[in-house]
Amino acid sequence: xxxxxxxxxxxxxxxxxxxxxxxxxxxxxxxxxxxxxxxxxxxxxxxxxxxxxxxxxxxxxxxxxxxxxxxxxxxxxxxxxxxxxxxxxxxxxxxxxxxxxxxxxxxxxxxxxxxxxxxx
Length: 120
Description:
Blueprint: H1 3-19, H2 22-28, E1 29-36, E2 42-44, H3 45-53, E3 57-72, E4 75-88, E5 91-106, E6 109-119
Parallel strand pairs: 1-6
Antiparallel strand pairs: 1-2, 3-4, 4-5, 5-6
Helix pairs in contact: 1-2
């Protein structure tokens, strides 16, 4: 696992989020994903995918800025800020968040296994 691989996967993730590409998200997220949303809710992979599948979340603009990327054995930890603009449950939103995300090398590729986001 290299920093270039993780940055490539991060860019793939941003694209999948912007395009609501459930298939790509399914491939990037580990089945046992746990993520703490800015609301404080714990999100599983299925909850996350359903948000895109149902059209509840539609991201129109996504501007990432990576802050840190550390690789420890088979785990990558990335922190970034993300400016998001779009619709959630048909309500417009625009905000800036700080995320930490954990990528892990698994038998079927490098997957997101966890993370958290806060409003900044």
